[in-house]
Amino acid sequence: MAASLETHWLQALIAALQGGQLALLHLLAALGLTESPYGQPAWPWPWRLSGENLLIDLGQARRAGIALIFGAAACLMLLAALLWRRARWYLIATTALVALAMPWPDPAAVLVPANPTSFHVAPSAVDAKSLVRGGWLYAQHCAACHGADLRGQGERAKSLAVWPPNLAGPLMWRRADGDLVWHVLHGVHDDHGHETMLGFHDTLSSDDAWALLDYLKVRAAGETLKSEGQWTMPVRVADTAVDCPRGARQLASWRGQRLRLYLPARPAAAAPMEDPRLVTVRVEPGAPPSPDGCVASAPEIAQTLAWVAGVNSPAGLQFIVDREGYLRARSSPDRATWSEGDLLCKSGGTAPTPAPPQDGLGALIARMDAEPVRFVKGGVVH
């Protein structure tokens, strides 16, 4: 219980630091004191607060928390000094003492380099067509250095001053999305200002950069699945159009319900039996609408599922998507039933495991619901 309380306290502190910076950024934008490149307010300073280091150094996290409390008390006393003339000088002196007694954390523990787009977020949800475009952009502009498998061993890698990083692991999830987009558009520089990666702001738009970033996450998920047997970082299923007997809708419209995505091993193959615990969507490029169920026929969604599964062809595979849109489980083409072992995206939490149901799919769903995705990026739970 103590560890749980400590975790909640630390997450609250990190969320407060993040929320405070976002509030300040929006205030600056409302006052016209910062520019808005790429349609979102720009962070005007070269540094920002980051909670990621505080997850590692609990001592510095405590100092930061105490400093935040002291700082809030000092602000309240200054406000009181403005309103209460009789005790004004006493309150100002007390505020100075509070500032002197404040246990400031080590700046290296809370400050990280920032870019104008550090707090930018994706302008829209991940879409299958934009993912495929991101794949095309990667092949055109990035594969020569970073390699077709994202591992930084492209044909031009040896000629570079700095070897490209391995993008097939968790790197894409550890960095702020806005920072990654900035690096795509404006390049990467070392501590001496020398360019170590070319920027593409003259070639790519910000929408292109976001599509490229989404593609890299999906491909990285597939690569980790191949190497480690699981999705070590969570990835949401891409949105796409779906034809249903009652009309067309988007895959994202089922958010809040569990989904089963079924890719037939051969055309006109029989679909799995309907199950009231989830919505079944057949994914088959070029398939016509069916009166018997929902069909996603765009070739882009099948391609994205092949990438996230780390295979050339996803034919015969099934995927389970949780209520938040995260891909959680995948079955093999030679498997007719599900089991708890098919859960490939695990939260790593300590939620109590419910009594196992009688069937394998029920056990998988129970485990999935008991351990929802708890994704921490930059110290903030997403």
Provide a short characterization of the protein structure.
By secondary structure, the chain is an alpha+beta fold. The chain contains 11 helices and 13 strands. The two termini are 23 Å apart.
Give a structural overview.
- The chain is an alpha+beta fold and 382 residues long.
- 39% of the residues lie in helices and 12% in strands.
- It has helices at residues 2-30, 58-83, 88-101, 107-110, 128-141, 143-146, 171-174, 177-186, 206-228, 299-309, 360-370, and strands at 47-49, 111-113, 188-189, 195-197, 241-244, 247-250, 259-262, 279-283, 294-296, 318-321, 327-331, 376-377, 380-381.
- It has a 5-stranded mixed sheet, with helices on one face. A two-stranded antiparallel sheet has the order 1-2. Strands 3-4 form a two-stranded antiparallel ribbon.
- Strand 5 (241-244) and strand 6 (247-250) form a beta hairpin.
- It is globular, with a radius of gyration of 25 Å.
- The model is unreliable at 1-5 (pLDDT under 50).
